[in-house]
Design goal:
mainly alpha; two-stranded antiparallel ribbon; two-stranded antiparallel sheet; globular
Length: about 525
């Protein structure tokens, strides 16, 4: 393997891992803020408990996301210096906005929210979580502005062989961005919805297993109570409302993802036709959507691909909104790409030993084809699970079935899978370009970059093998830490975030009605006055 391949693996591993945290942080933020608003308006204790519990999980995930996100920016200079040199005049602006505006705002107000319980006025404390949440969404916008420019460069002109930004508003209103942003945000909401649904289902099931809740002859819940373990009637309301909120969020987000995904497909047809063809393993022009195609693993020969089942006209609808537009296949597009961009990598020192090698314009079709389908499948499974869950809890609790509980908890992974598969498809489908050309007749000529030219020339294969191995081991360790932390607090329920609910807790119980928004530490916290208690 070459240094280029290892560098791509490293960026892929670290990015996919980091993006496990990003959608959950964004999604939980937009859940926690309205929950605290509901508590602020109504004073009902279940909303305070929901805010504290889901807020604790939000914080754990946020911290891990920050730690892994820092690695991403260092990689631009260390492993991808040629790429950074080429796009720096454009890429630097949205990344600086993300750091100096969005992330700083998010960090400052999240700090106020963490340490402000019992110290800030309730309205200021509430506005802090809203500011942090909106800033996290703004952060996503600026990051996606940079990524969308890589997919569809606008707002620049070429100066001495490098793109120089001349219109920041063109970059920030790129049509690719305006579709990718809501698609990503709805994807984040779907992750949060599945997260709430699965955990709340587990706790409702646990209440039934422990005999706290029962059902009457009509199947309606009879809510019980066991204050000794913090399982009172308000606890039941926390989990029932959390499950219903999660299911509704999941269904709404699926509708949003579907609508914005349709718009993305139509842009992809215009801007990156090879990605569209590879997503369908479409070797020949046609209108049919492939339900199933098979071929030889790793083959670049379209003759090896056989369409087993197709839906006539559906691909045309996805691409152009009708049922008869011919969508160009791989065999038609390859000569067009070769005519525009050449058949071999330029004889330029930046390509090193790769100079003169043939250009593979077809991305890895196994990845694009199945990535696209896994994204859709996981999304549909999550939405179907949400609809079923809403029906099953219509009488106030969940069935006693252990297998249904396990499926609900396992279903938390489906939206994560959909998000990861979608991003892998998006980035892999752009290859062999790291900055894809803008095919619009009014686009800027020569604003594209082959991935082969982007890697740092001074980084050796051995150094990259060491770094990717180290990152993978460290990230696996961090994954174990995060999963254990999340699992510990999830199993502990609301008392894990509010131990004052337990009679044996030294700090006593705070029902939230005195207006101070009290809440203390996690398991093992004994000092209710400790400013770091909630953070712990």
């Amino acid at each position: 393997m070459e240094a280029l391949e290892i560098a791509r693996w490293q960026f892929g591993i670290t990015t996919v891992y980091h993006f496990l945290m990003v959608p959950l942080t964004i999604g939980l933020g937009i859940v926690v803020a309205p929950l605290q608003t509901a508590w602020f308006v109504t004073g009902r204790e279940q909303y305070l408990r929901m805010t504290k519990f889901w807020g604790k999980l939000f914080l754990i995930n946020f911290i891990m996301g920050v730690a892994t996100g820092l690695v991403q920016e260092f990689q631009f200079g260390m492993a991808w210096s040629e790429y950074s040199r080429f796009v720096g005049d454009v890429f630097g602006a949205p990344l600086a906005m993300e750091s100096l505006l969005a992330f700083f705002t998010e960090s400052i107000f999240l700090g106020l929210w963490i340490f402000g319980w019992q110290r800030l006025p309730k309205i200021v404390h509430l506005l802090s979580i809203w500011a942090a949440t909106l800033a996290s969404i703004g952060s996503a916008y600026f990051i996606l502005a940079a990524n969308s420019w890589m997919q569809h460069p606008v707002g620049v002109e070429m100066v001495d062989g490098r793109p120089v930004m001349v219109d920041i508003w063109a970059v920030l209103t790129n049509n690719t961005l305006l579709v990718a942003f809501p698609h990503t945000i709805f994807g984040a909401f779907s992750v949060a919805g599945g997260f709430l649904l699965g955990i709340a289902w587990y706790h409702l099931w646990k209440r039934r297993r422990d005999g706290i809740d029962t059902v009457d002859a009509a199947g309606k819940v009879v809510v019980g109570s066991n204050p000794a373990i913090g399982r009172d009637a308000a606890d039941h309301k926390v989990w029932l409302q959390s499950l219903r909120i999660g299911a509704v969020v999941a269904l709404v987000s699926f509708a949003g993802v579907s609508l914005t995904g349709d718009l993305q497909a139509k842009l992809m047809f215009q801007q990156q036709p090879m990605k569209m063809a590879a997503a369908e393993a479409a070797c020949h022009d046609g209108t049919g959507f492939s339900v199933l195609s098979v071929g030889d693993l790793g083959s670049k020969d379209c003759g090896d691909v056989v369409a087993v089942m197709e839906l006539p006209g559906l691909l045309s609808f996805l691409a152009n909104g009708d049922f008869n537009t011919e969508v160009k296949g791989v065999n038609t597009l390859i000569p067009e790409y070769e005519q525009k961009f050449g058949t071999a990598l330029p004889d330029d020192p930046v390509y090193g030993e790769r100079a003169g090698q043939p250009i593979e314009y077809v991305p890895v079709m196994e990845v694009t084809y199945w990535g696209f389908r896994l994204m859709i499948t996981f999304g549909m499974l999550a939405a179907a699970a949400a609809a079923v869950a809403l029906w099953l809890v219509r009488k106030g609790t969940v069935p006693e079935s252990r297998w249904l509980m396990r499926l609900a908890v396992l279903g938390i992974l489906a939206p994560f899978g959909a998000n990861s598969a979608g991003w892998i498809f998006t980035e892999m489908g752009r290859q062999p370009f790291v900055v894809a050309p803008n095919p619009d007749p009014n686009g800027i000529d020569d604003v594209f970059m082959f991935t082969a030219a982007a890697v740092s020339p001074g980084v050796s294969l051995g150094e990259l093998v060491f770094s990717v191995s180290a990152f993978t081991l460290v990230y696996l360790s961090l994954l174990v830490v995060e999963v254990r932390l999340l699992a510990t607090y999830c199993r502990g329920g609301v008392p894990a975030a509010m131990p004052e609910l337990l009679p044996a807790h030294d700090g006593g119980r705070d029902n939230g009605k005195d207006g101070d928004g009290a809440g203390h530490g996690g398991p093992g916290s004994k000092d209710g006055d400790d400013v770091l208690a909630f953070a712990y």
